[in-house]
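Allow me, if you will, to draw on your knowledge of protein folds for a short while. Thank you for your consideration; the sequence and its tokens are set out here:
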Amino acid sequence: MTNLNDYFNPVSIESPEFIHLAGQAGFPHNISIHTESTSLIDLSKFKIALFGVPEGRNSPNIGTLKGPDAIRGQLYKLARIPGKSKIIDLGNMKQGVTFNDTIAGLTDILTFLLGENIFPVIVGGSSALTLAFDKALTILKSRYTLIAVDPRIDYCNERREPDSFNYLNNLIHNHKSTFDHYINIGYQTYLNDPQVINRFLKRRSELIRIGDVRKAIYLTEPLFRDSDVAVFDISSVRQSDAPGTVSPSPNGFYGEEICLLARYAGISDKLKIFGLFDVNPEVDIRLQTSGLAAQILWFFLEGFSQKQYETPVLSNSNSGRFVRYHVRITDLNDDLIFVKSNLTDRWWMEFPSGADRNIYIACSHEDYMKANQNEVPERWLQGVDRVKP
């Protein structure tokens, strides 16, 4: 059995100079905290495990190792999370002797937490830590979709050691990996190699440019709902809102937009792991980036507390919770089947599969409306490719 006390240092942060939210209104008052006087023994009552990974090696953003403590200091100043989600802050993971040791330790932690049905929220550190996400899910034999909110597609055409700018190389070229599908939210064309973009488009990856996301940000919600792993790179936020990273861009999401995306991730009932990376306090301005990162986490946790577990019961046609719509499109042999939740107004597409079971892919009301106009939705075409045996 994994003893988490061997992996973590207790939470240790300085008391703030002033407190806006006193007493039970503050964030620390509805979570449990691993301190020097409390050991990690029974985690069975918790739904979410929050922890930091102070690791900046294998990244040009070496200062990210200071990110977890800076972010935690800002997070604890915020309001308590509504709802009754049981949250524990495990503290900071002990850094390995080498970067690979850290990856091995993080893999052990994730494998244990996922096996106990506890949701891990990782505060980095750099996005190179995503390698451990892949290793853990591969050990658990879980095929997964990775959604990255990132201005760059972290893939490199050159062979080199895995780092925060090319971790996707390991996922794609490792034949043992259970990595299945990639979604990028908010990539910026001028920051990416056109050959890399074309490579991922040929793989049927879903790449949504920053301008397209901002035109209708609500259309990203089904993408989060269909994903198993969410990785947020703080450099996806424009430099004016988040200067504390070594690769900022004048363009990117506003703070309010990145927080909304985090909430979409939180309400996804399929998501298994959430990671927030690349905050570097050494180049930050008055803790601005750490403060935004804390709010990103807060919105994720707030979304998690409002989660409705609908995906597991979509196939139950007798529940009365869902309505099925059959849409006939010219030149297609079979109807397109859409499923709508009466509770949340969310939509899915239904794809028949073998062994008397169906596969469901999240979609939007706009996809349903396109089908009613005799137009095949792009999301449906993506779905057909993904459900092929």
In short: Residues 4-305 form a domain with the Arginase; Chain A fold (CATH 3.40.800.10). The first strand starts at residue 8 and ends at 9. The chain has two domains: 4-305, 316-387.
